[in-house]
User: Fold this.
Amino acid sequence: MILFRIKELISKKEKEENRKITLNEVSEKTGVNRTSLSKMQNPHMKHSTTTQAIDALCIYFNCKVEDVMVHVPDNEIK
Assistant:
């Protein structure tokens, strides 16, 4: 299963910039729909997205694709 690491990325950016970051802000800055971002945070939604959205998130968070999402075997998901 592919897991998105949106929460972790937001938390890291909040610490780096010493401020609160909302999903609304991420959505506005990246062009990724807020609902999509919410679904990405829930591993049980099994959300599908576009490479354009992944690219926008990489740019916003200044990270690599593997920082945005990771593959975890289904039997390791709680």
Summary: The beta strands are 2-4, 69-71.
